[in-house]
Write a structure and sequence with these properties.
With about 325 residues, the protein is of the alpha/beta class. It has helices spanning about 10-25, 50-55, 105-120, 145-155, 170-175, 190-200, 215-225, 255-260, 270-275, 280-290, 315-330, and strands at about 1-5, 25-30, 35-40, 60-65, 85, 90, 95-100, 125, 160-165, 180-185, 205, 230-235, 265-270, 295-300. The chain is built from 11 helices and 14 strands. The strands form 3 sheets. The protein has an 8-stranded parallel β-barrel, surrounded by 5 helices. The protein has a 4-stranded antiparallel β-sheet with strand order 2-3-1-4, with helices on one face. Helix 3 (about 105-120) packs parallel to helix 4 (about 145-155), helix 6 (about 190-200) crosses helix 7 (about 215-225) and helix 10 runs parallel beside helix 11. The chain is elongated, with a radius of gyration of 21 Å. It binds phosphoenolpyruvate (PEP) and manganese (II) ion. Manganese (II) ion (MN) binds next to loops.
């Protein structure tokens, strides 16, 4: 249930509603727009309480959110959520590009890639130190020693960093070195992790499970939001279908569908969706045309030597071309890049 306050309702009236929600034993989540405030009441299923709120001062209406996700829904927060990261805004007019290697392999490799993607025009640097690999025999990431490299490269390049967190115990440490904590496709429904990220309060990029519906993705986002962290971004990274020519199938329809259902920014990862560097550029352009707020792209200076995901990694010069061509699409749809 949400309580929509009248345009310009005074603070005291909002506070009175919040107080009443607490008295009744529920949690109140506030969405303060420029014009009006909306109060989300989670867990209240008693219809008689609707009247309690409807009769309060400056309450315009009380609405039931029919979808199972509440705080992620556009009903609760009609305007787009914008997540500020190091001087950039994700979810605003600019399309934000996050790029870098799949995994941090060495100080030199990470630094070289970081300078190259920065030069090409990327806004945020990606690089995993904890890698969720399908095979236990594959490179698992540098782990904790890699965190120092994240810190050093961030310091030297001035780029904000996005990196994956796999377990709740890693959250406090990762929150110190990374600006955005990435939840991988394999952990989208790791509820203990989502809970920990809700409490950590750092921006989160939540990837869609490769076999999850959009509603399941939104319910996972709801876990983070309901624990008090509203800085959540969603990421479409391809889903499993019968198709075998691509690593996954990029569900491009997720972009407009999610943008309508939720206020959260929507990012697309065409690298893991296709598994092949040659298709990363066309799908980057298509994602921007469909309304994506950002891209997550793998770049490696020597893809043939990469310890993970080399086949889908772009060489820096190809990535620079991609940025130019993607910018033309962004401008054609009234956005910048
Ligand atoms: C990654 O970003 O390197 C990654 C492992 O992605 P996903 O979780 O989407 O497979
Ligand atoms: Mn990867």
């Amino acid at each position: 249930m949400i309580v929509v306050m009248r345009n310009g309702a005074p603070r005291e009236s909002v506070a009175a509603v919040v107080e009443r929600v607490k008295e009744l034993g529920f949690q109140a989540h506030l969405s303060e727009g420029e014009e009006r405030t909306i109060i989300g009441i989670i867990g209240d299923k008693r219809p008689q309480n609707e009247h309690v709120f409807r009769l309060m001062e400056d309450v315009e209406k009380v609405v039931h959110i029919l979808r199972p996700f509440k705080l992620a829904s556009r009903d609760f927060h009609p305007l787009d959520t914008v997540v500020p990261i190091n001087g950039h805004s994700i979810g605003g007019n600019q399309v934000i590009v996050m790029a870098g290697p799949c995994a941090v392999e060495s100080r030199e490799q990470f630094l070289e890639t970081a300078y190259a993607v920065k030069e090409a025009g990327a806004h945020i640097l990606r690089g995993g130190v904890f890698k969720p690999r399908t095979s236990p025999y594959s490179f698992q990431g540098l782990g904790e020693p890699g965190l120092e490299m994240l810190a050093e490269v961030k310091e030297r390049t001035g780029l904000a960093i996005i990196s994956e967190v796999m377990a709740p115990e890693q959250v406090p440490l990762m929150a110190q070195c990374a600006d955005i904590l990435q939840v991988g496709t394999r952990n989208m429904q790791n509820y203990n992790l989502l809970h920990a990220l809700g409490e950590a309060g750092k921006p989160v990029l939540l990837k869609r499970g490769m076999m999850s519906t959009m509603e399941e993705l939104l319910m996972s986002a709801e876990y983070i939001l309901s624990h008090g962290n509203y800085r959540v971004m969603l990421c479409e990274r391809g889903i499993r279908t019968f198709e075998t020519y691509t690593r996954n199938t990029l569900d491009l329809s997720a972009v407009p569908v999610l943008k309508q259902a939720t206020h959260l920014p929507v990012v697309v990862d065409p690298s893991h969706a296709t598994g092949n560097w040659e298709w990363v550029e066309p799908l980057s352009r298509a994602s921007i045309a469909a309304g994506a707020d950002g891209l997550l792209i793998e770049v490696h200076p020597h893809p043939d030597k990469a310890l993970s995901d080399g086949t889908q990694s772009l060489r820096p010069e190809r990535f620079a071309e991609l940025i130019q061509r993607a910018r033309a699409v962004a401008e054609a749809v009234g956005r910048s890049l």
